[in-house]
Amino acid sequence: MSVSMFDIKSKVALVTGANRGIGLAIAEAYVESSCHVIMIHRPETDPSEAVSRLEGKRRQGEHTEIITLPFNLNSVSQESVEKLTSLALDKSPTKRIDILVNNAAVAKAILAQDLSMKDYDEIMTVNLKAPLLFSKVVGKHMIDRYENHDDSYRGKIINISSIMAYTAMTHSTAYTVAKSGLHNLTKSLSNEWSLKGINVNVIAPGPTDTDMIKRIQRERRSNGEETSSNTTIASSKIPFGRKADPEDYKGTIIYLSSRASDYVCGSVVVVDGGYMG
């Protein structure tokens, strides 16, 4: 297989939740591959530190674009996603979006009996409704290009899920439901769009060292659940011997974004260091 099959130079990737954690590592992988990045971040966050980090990852002599757009996923609607996508296409150096990564997520440590519908709706909106709407709107752009301009073109949509779609934990009812739904959303969209020029796949990360996971552990402690033993057990179950670092997902992202994965459709790619066995 030629290395060129993994080449995504001059492509344009739109990544939600790209300001930190796995999303930032994904954006970094794209910049390192000379792929232009449109970073979607929460309006209350400052992306300048993330942008500075990405600028340091540009290949020498390359002018890879790094674009930031604020967006509130908590109140996402089709109209708001259409407006954002229109703005993203306008700012795109090629006026295209070739890759969509639905990465943004929210999780809260709440027992089922204490779960309010407000919290449930927020978790479902960010983790499931937003990926559906972004896929629907950006997917239409990809399909139009395939059908009207370039039948050799394939758009790539990559959803970021979690192995918690398979291994539910306490304090995480809404989150696990949303991530399970994201797997089936991926398969449904793939069934509809594989012959329309789009590959839709999902990555299911295992235990990862991110700020969100650390916050969840703090919330569990405050709720009276001992997490140190859970952490020890989790680490001992990982054959690789450690939790994942966000950078561990870079290779999988580049593969699913490139021509090398053109025959991969509706797949759940588990990246967990062997945790699931």
Features:
277 residues, alpha/beta, Rossmann fold, seven-stranded parallel sheet, 42% helix, globular
Describe the model:
By secondary structure, this protein is α/β, with parallel strands linked by helices. It has a single domain (about 5-210, about 245-270), classed as NAD(P)-binding Rossmann-like Domain (Rossmann fold, 3-Layer(aba) Sandwich). About 40% of the residues lie in helices and about 15% in strands. It has a seven-stranded parallel beta sheet, sandwiched between helices. Strand 1 (about 10-15), helix 1 and strand 2 form a beta-alpha-beta unit. It is globular. Mean pLDDT is about 90; it is low at about 230-235.
Summarize the structure.
This protein is of the alpha/beta class and 277 residues long.
